Amino acid sequence: MTFDWAFFWDHLLTPHPDFVTGLWRTIWISIASMVLALVLGVVIALFLRSNNIFLRSIGNIYIWVIRGTPLLVQLVIVYSGFAAAGIYRFSDISVGAITLQAVIQAAIVTLTIHESSYIAEIVRSGISGVDQGQFEASEVLAMKPGQTMLSIILPQAVRTMVPPLGNIFNQLMKETSILSIIGVSEMFLVAQGFSASTFRTFEIFLVAAIYYLALTTVWTVIQGWIEYRLDKYMGIDPQQGVIAWIRELIVPRRRRNRPVPTEVESAPRLATTGA
């Protein structure tokens, strides 16, 4: 079977409405999961830094279990395993004209739990990177621990946390393809349906791959812009990141750093001969 270029370009440039719906579902599930994972990750990170051995143990066990088991297994346990064991069964939730399907709830919960275990370590490392003197200064000012964390420590730790957090979100958007295993009609499952009905497997999944690549590329540029703005706000010269990469493509470093010749340097040198 030859490659069907007409089919490929048609689905790439004018995608089916179901494919567009799956694309948007992929995006908003990723955003919702990332926001919730950030909140839960910060809580677990604070557990890890707590002086209470019980809270530290909870944080360490949580990370050990979640990071040590595959996302696919967690997804099946949360959606099917809990229902089979009689622990909890997800059901559709309707708020006005909006209905949140049970499978989407399970998907968001699973992605939140899975990603929060990685975010917790990122947040913990970012907080640990803040100079100890900042903590001591807040104690001198009689600031409460919560006020110290929110007003002094976390704002300083954000810059070092943004790159790895951005990578987590980038990975999260690609991990949504696993949600098809429980029937979430995101981009991968829609592509799978088109593949089964048209028998154009290579063409349709190549289209899906390009759209995934477009999503991650757009986010990479957004992440670079965020890093650039944070560097400017904190008075740091943005030498790295996507913005610097784009600048490097436009103006190569050897041309950008080339000194402007002075009149003496630009004048032709006269050959001198010894007497």
Give the termini distance in whole angstroms: 83 Å
Q: Could you give the order of strands across the largest sheet?
A: 1-2
Number of strand elements: 2
Structural class: mainly alpha
For this entry, what is the oligomeric state of its chains?
Answer: single chain
What's the overall geometry? globular
Q: What is the CATH C-level name?
A: Mainly Alpha
The secondary-structure element order is: HHHHEEHHHHHHHH
Model description:
The structure is a single chain. A hairpin with a 2-residue loop joins strand 1 and strand 2. The chain has a two-stranded antiparallel ribbon with strand order 1-2. It is mostly helical. The model is unreliable at 270-275 (pLDDT under 50). It has one domain: MetI-like (MetI-like fold, Orthogonal Bundle), CATH 1.10.3720. It is built from twelve helices and two strands.
